[in-house]
Amino acid sequence: MARYLTSTDQNVALNGIIPFDDVSISCNKGCVIPLAVGVLTLKGGSNQPARYEVTLQGNIAIPEGGAVTPIAVAITLNGVPVADSVAIVTPAAAEDLWHVNTSATITVPCGCCVSVSAAYVDATEDDAAVTPTPSIFVRRRASLDVQRTA
Predict the structure, then answer these.
(1) Distance (Å, rounded) from C-alpha 127 to C-alpha 137?
(2) Domain of 28?
(3) CB 3.0–4.6 Å: which of 12, 21, 66, 130 could bond 124 by disulfide?
């Protein structure tokens, strides 16, 4: 298992990547490679596909003075949110912290690689009358865990 953490409180823009910049547990088998701050590369096996369980957890809020709207985070695969991993909360007020926990199972084909990250995504796309808040607050020590399961 590999674990990546946020080292400080962060404001993340809409469609922005949550910056996991602290390695708590590194992958010693070369299957999970940090590519950039908040972006990981998962490698497929040489003879067979590899399966990973990716888990995101942390505390999120609307920053002070922000509009109170639903907010969502998701695990992304090559920059695209994994639909089953979208976690949506609707705070009662700005600065109201909510804990989110979501996961996705990702299969990487034999000999291939994929990029994985976590991002603040639009939680209001089903309601065109609502404009999403332009940024969210991510509390220090959010984590992104990656476990190779097959």
Answers:
(1) 22
(2) 2-148
(3) 130
pLDDT average, residue stretch 97-121:
96
What's the pTM value of the predicted model, to 2 decimals?
0.93
The CA distance from 15 to 118, in Å, is 10
Q: Kindly compute the dihedral angle of the four CA atoms of residues 53, 57, 63, 67, in this order, to the nearest 10 degrees.
A: 60
Tell me which DSSP letter residue 88 carries: E
pLDDT in tens, 11-65: 999 999 999 999 999 988 889 999 889 999 999 988 999 999 999 999 999 999 9
What's the structural domain count of the chain? 1
* DSSP characters over 19-65: ---EEEE--TTSSEEEEETTEEEEEPPSSS-EEEEEEEEEEEEPPTT
The structure tokens listed for 98 are 């909510």
| Integer Cα distance of 74 and 80 in angstroms | 9
